[in-house]
Amino acid sequence: MTETTTVAYLGPAGTFTEAALIRFQDQGAFGPGEVTQLPVNSPREALDAVRAGRADFACVAIENSVDGAVTSTFDALVEAGGVQIYHELEIEIAFSIMLRPGTELSDVRTFATHPVAHQQVRQWLAENIPDARFVPASSNAAAAEAVAEGRADAAAAPDRAAVLFGLDVVAKDVADVAGARTRFVVVGPRGVPTPRTGTDQTTVVFTLPNEPGTLVAALTEFSLRGVDMSRIESRPTRKVFGTYHFYVDLVGHIDDVPLAEALRALWLRAEDITYLGSWPTPGRDGEATVADQARLERATDWVRAAREGRA
Q: Residue 270 maps to which CATH number?
């Protein structure tokens, strides 16, 4: 019997998230067997489907090079807990502008796309359809669907959406920032992290006592151990005004001794801490990390020998 893996994603078919899902599938990120797609209306719904057992994994956008972190995804990862990141990839983002057959740009009165996409095509809109009213959609493909159904006149979406919904493409490769990229991740139930590769990322989210110097002291735990922090961002806890979750991306894997020691020290300082996973990050140079790991293992052997009277 063929095993089937269900993956939730921001739908309908034709979104960039679906494109990322297909690429993850080609890379074997979901394991062997067939993959069944479960389109939903938001990243939060995708993660909730994993928590509820309706999906084995979720594919969600987590960051883009134009607007930074996708805060709705980060909030959803932490607020209900129980999930973890296992893989990531990046996709270059450029949009096609699409209309119903038989219409022209001069006919456009309403323009639909996802709010994040809207920020990435504002210049093109100002130059070509400046009077069109923006209609936010739950996804780019949902915007294309709205055009097909007559609820909007034009949409910005991936090329595939035009094919799926029978629309005409009037402009391709539209992006105010050339080379813009979005990072997508595979999220599953909490479990053993993806094996260490030497080119990994670890992400944790923590809160600290609301006292002077606590953030500096917490971050010092990383710098003292030579752990590189590639990103830090704060988000309100939504519980007490003036309290924050700190989201930190670290270069390395939880199996790396310095990083593990830093997380242990952070646990002692934090009010609460959530581990979101360690996973491979394509394109990162891991030679220095491998060398440091080998040196630390020799240091550990030396300490063990000293304890045993062999040093």
A: 3.30.70.260
In this structure, the number of other CB atoms found within 10 A of the CB of residue 178 comes to 8
pLDDT digits (tens, 9 = 90+) for 180-220: 899 999 999 999 999 999 899 999 999 999 889 999 999 99
Confidence class of residue 290 from pLDDT cuts 50, 70 and 90?
A: low
Q: Are residues 43 and 115 in the same domain?
A: no
Distances 216 to 127, 179, 203, 213, 266 between C-alpha atoms, Å: 46, 35, 18, 5, 11
Pairing of strands 154-157, 200-207: unpaired
Which DSSP symbol is given to 191? -
310: buried, middle or exposed (CB in 10 Å: 19+, 13-18, 0-12)? exposed
Residue range of the domain that includes 276: 193-310
**What's the whole-model pTM score?**
0.86
| Burial class for 269, CB neighbours closer than 10 Å (0-12, 13-18, 19+) | middle
284 vs 61 pLDDT, higher one: 61
- For residues 25 and 141, the answer to whether their CB atoms sit within 8 Å is no
Q: Rounded distance, CA 170 to CA 95, Å?
A: 11
